[in-house]
Amino acid sequence: MVKRLGVITRDCAGINAALRAVVRTATSKQAEVLGIIRGYDGLIDGELRPLDRRAVSGIINLGGTILKSARSERFLTEEGQRQALLTIERHKIDGLIVIGGNGSLTGAHVLAAKYGVPVIGVPATIDNDVNQVDQCLGADTAVNVALDALDKIRDTATSLERIFVVEVMGRDCGYLAMKVALAGGCEDVILPEQDFDLNEICQEIQAGNAQGKVSWIVIVAEGKARAQDVATAITLLTGLETRIAVLGHIQRGGRPTAIDRLLGAKLGSAAVEALLAGETDKCVALKDEQIKLIPLETAIKPKKLIFEPEYRLLKILS
Questions:
Q1: pTM to 2 decimal places
Q2: Which domains does the chain have, with CATH numbers?
């Protein structure tokens, strides 16, 4: 019987909507909720705060997480994991809900599989790369935040007749770059999942310039190349003036879109229901337009994303 549950969060838009749903669903079932401050580091150090309905009032529209977040090198060690387990035992936590991406969900799987802690995960990452999950919390907002910035950059690129190379997040995954490039009407995109030919890009730029095309935007995923390097090469190969914009961490923030607020509400509530029903070592996820349970062992495996059809469409439309 789960009477007291703990919640761990990472940081992206929609997290607070999910946290609100967790707390209010749990309290409606007469279960207590303890928020764990700064993720797994907070679990190791015993940084917890009680959360009731009032504590999560007015947070559904906020980006980030009210519980703060931090990467934890200590939790990767046996000692750190055992310290976290002591905190769970000391505070009489009957189960955990972990809201985050692959790293957070891997930690959740360790607690469940190795130490027998009842754990349910909620996939939340702007990369949208949790395996067997159609839509992760935070991904839609990140695309829209980046797209808003891109629209402003295009105004400048068109007015000044310049090439812009725009770097977006995506260390191992090109989801954000591909969606922003296609939705933003960009001319090209450089992704971690596929090779690119800078000479070919430059030839297209020169051909377009000869026909009177006055601006050009190339999106670059940070994991594949750096905007400055690409821009320098384009200027060298074409002789045309090139500027860069690195969007950086603005993509992780921003008020969550309606899609992420709704998804957060559904996943947060479903996570509590699953934990109370005795489920563990699984994550609640949007799959085939339904909320389903997926084993964490499956969810944390690398997700193979194929962008070739969208890339072909991008080139046709550009």
A1: 0.94
A2: 4-138+256-299 (3.40.50.450), 140-252 (3.40.50.460)
